[in-house]
Every structure is written in C-alpha cells, then in structure tokens.
Amino acid sequence: MDDYSKKRVWNGGALTSPLPPALVSCGTIEKPNVLTVAWTGIMCTKPPVTYIAVRPQRYSYGLIKASGEFVINLPPASLVRAVDLCGVRSGRDTDKFQLCSLTALPAAAVSAPIIAECPLSLECRVRQIIPLGSHDVFIADIVKTDAAESLIDEKGRLALEKAKLLAYSHGEYFELGRKIGSFGFSVRKKKKMSKHNHH
Amino acid sequence: MDDYSKKRVWNGGALTSPLPPALVSCGTIEKPNVLTVAWTGIMCTKPPVTYIAVRPQRYSYGLIKASGEFVINLPPASLVRAVDLCGVRSGRDTDKFQLCSLTALPAAAVSAPIIAECPLSLECRVRQIIPLGSHDVFIADIVKTDAAESLIDEKGRLALEKAKLLAYSHGEYFELGRKIGSFGFSVRKKKKMSKHNHH
Predict the structure, then answer these.
(1) Domain total in chain B
(2) Residue A197 has pLDDT above 60, yes or no
(3) I need a labelling partner for A160 at 20 to 30 A (CA). Which of A54, B64, B69, B194 fits?
(4) Which of B40, B42, B152 to mutate to test the interface with A (most CBs of A within 10 A)?
C-alpha cells in the first residue's frame, strides 16, 4: 500500500471525490436548458432529499429559482463530451440540448424535462435555498425517479452498474472501473467464515 | 450507444452516483471514532463548504454535534474493507480505528483526527445543522486540507488520480477506472481544430 502518512496542510479547498458530474435539466419541455453540476449529492434517505449548488450568475439559476423544479440526470461515460460542454457553455446564447444532441422527454411530476440518453433521472422540487458565497444551494425533494427500462432486470432491480456511469474527480472525468465489493460484504464474509469454522 | 429512452417511473429514491464513501473521523486524537458517509459533497467553492448527512441514532452524531468538528477522509480503493466495516459497525462498542488498522493523526485546525492511510482529508467545522427526516445535515466550512506529500508533484499539484480512489454506486464499491477527459476538453479540442482549419 502507498504511504500517505506524511501530510502537507493547505487552506481549505472544495475538493471531494469522486462526484457525479450530473446533467441538471431545467426550464420546460418547449424551452429546455441543461447545465453540468458536480456539486450535488444525497442529504436524506427518508424522505429522499438532494441538493445542487449553482452560481447565481448562471442562466439556469434563474430558471430553477422561478419554477422551483429541476431534474438531476446521471450521465453514462459515453456522454463525457456533452457533460463537459454543458459545464462550459451558457444556455443564454446556446440551445445546449441541440448542441449536444440530447433529447428532452416530459417528466412525470415536474415541468423540467428529463434527458432520454441518461439511465437515471431524479425529478426534484426545491424546498429551500441557502446562499453560501460563490454558490447557492437548492435543497430539493426527489419526487420521482425515472429509470431506463433496458437496465431493469426481471426482479425489478436497476442494474445501474451496466450503465458505466461517468465520474468526476479533481478536474478530470473517469469511467467507473472494477467492482470490488458490495455494501456489507465485510460482515457477510466474516459470518461465512465462522460458519465454516464451527460446523 | 445503449438505448435508455424508455423509462419506468418510480417514487423518488435517494440514489445518485457515483459518490465518495468517505471515512468521517470525529471525537479526539485520544478517543477517535470513524464512520462511513456517502451522503456528502461540495456545497460552495468560495468559501469552501461541504456537508455530511448522518442519522441521529449514530454514535458519531453526538460526537460531531458536541464538538462541531469532523474530518472527511477520502479512501483509496485498497481500504474498501475498512470503509465497509466503518459503515456497518458502531463506535459505541468497537474501536473502529483499531478494528480497521487505521492510524489517527492530529489535524491542523480541528480536534477530530485525520486518517493517515487516506490521501486527502478535509478538516471541517460545522456552521449549521438541518434536520430532514432519517438524516440530519451538518453543513460545514472546510477549514484545512491535508494532502499526502507522496502525491504532490514538483509543481505543487496533488496527483489525486494516482491514489485510485474508492467510489460508491447503488450499493456497490468500485475503483475509479479509465480517465476519459479533463474539465474543458470539449472546448479546447474545438479551438485546436479551428486553428488547423484557418491557418
């Protein structure tokens, strides 16, 4: 194992990793917009609550504030160019759905569209806005989830690992790599071993 | 490209991906504790603000609330077993640093220790607690960053991609895989091409 025990102390920086470089869609199905947001995550399991942090200067900021609705779409690695473009270009002067060949589909519960090319979309309704400095945080209820039928197996489970989701880490894009465990494996393996030992 | 255009609509669920299954250390250097938190992310760039969502029943919840301080440590994939154990076991009855062979080092600015085996640690001070249901959100300033000397190159850049960070996605642990771009690449490539075309 590498030795990370010697540390250099820096001032605080906004760096955690890996993160989902989510395509956040907003506006309406007639006039949709999309921007890339890596400053997102889960805040609560029950009820399901998420957030996005957006600079007030961004074109999407006004759209989301006005409607109180947006959709978090998780992109597969194959969409890396669209993800990058939607983080750099502004919807003020560009139709980013057209520029990136993305397809807007109507959502089930919100006015913002979902993105057809993404395997998973979270339909969100804003419950609170917290200004923090460069970014405002939109805390939002996840009111519906749209999952790709092609990834749902016969048991009704979403085989999200097949989608090869895109990851963002310290300014770079990565594919998710090798699977090396599932939640709880460290305890399950121990139980199996102790069964073997005792019987 | 796979066809994700046919959707099945579910009720909202707490699922975004990939996420960092962070080792959150708390308590003191004399009596440290650690728990795994994937419900974390960046909320603001300037000033740097992060959060962790923790169930009030967790042992660490009281420690963090009392001190107002914690550290987010990003684990390499080699620590996957420790990460899983620290999500399943409780510090009430287990010394998880000892159980997982983790080394507590003093932090620069907070009472909670940093974890020697992690390449990057964010020292955090709580600024606000938001109860949302199953989880309370601790919004926190990132006051210091501790980076592994062995990953800092001659230009002072943290080569975090060398650390092979662990990712969490829909109940499973993954290594970060192939790098497929860096922020802004979609625009930089276009500029290069247009230069070629015009000269």
Answers:
(1) 1
(2) no
(3) A54
(4) B42
- pLDDT per residue over A138-178, tens digit each? 999 999 999 999 999 999 999 999 999 999 999 999 999 99
Instruction: With respect to residue B3, please indicate whether it lies within any of the assigned structural domains.
Output: no
Q: Residue A1: which pLDDT band, with cuts at 50, 70 and 90?
A: low
- Whether residue B17 and residue A20 make contact (CB cut-off 8 A), yes or no, is yes
**Domain harbouring A81, CATH code:** 2.30.110.10
Name the residue range of residue B128's domain. 22-198
A148 vs B contacts (CB less than 8 Å): 2-8
Q: Label residue B115 left, alpha or beta by phi (over 0 means left) and psi (-120 to 50 means alpha).
A: beta
A34 to chain B: which residues are within 8 Å by CB? none
ipTM of this complex: 0.93
Q: To the nearest whole percent, how much of chain B has pLDDT over 90?
A: 92
CB count, 10 Å around CB of A61? 18
Distance between B184 CA and the closest CA of chain A, angstroms: 6
Q: Which helix (H) or strand (E) holds B191?
A: helix B185-198
Mutation to test the B interface, candidates A4, A34, A52, most B Cβ within 10 Å: A4
Q: Which of B171, B176, B178 sits opposite A169 (nearest CB)?
A: B176
Task: Report yes or no on B11 lying in a domain.
Answer: no
Residue A20 burial by CB count (10 A; 0-12/13-18/19+): exposed, middle or buried? Answer: buried
Residue A2 inside a domain? The answer is no
Chain A residue with the nearest C-alpha to that of B77: A180
Render pLDDT for B79-126 as a digit per residue (tens, 0 to 9). 999 999 999 999 999 999 999 999 999 999 999 999 999 999 999 999
Domain for residue B180, yes or no?
Answer: yes
Mean pLDDT of chain A: 94
pLDDT tens-place string over residues A62-105: 999 999 999 999 999 999 999 999 999 999 999 999 999 999 99
**Residues B148, A6 contacting (CB under 8 angstroms):** yes
Residues on chain B touching A24 (C-beta within 8 angstroms): none
Residues of B in contact with A163 (CB under 8 A): 2, 4
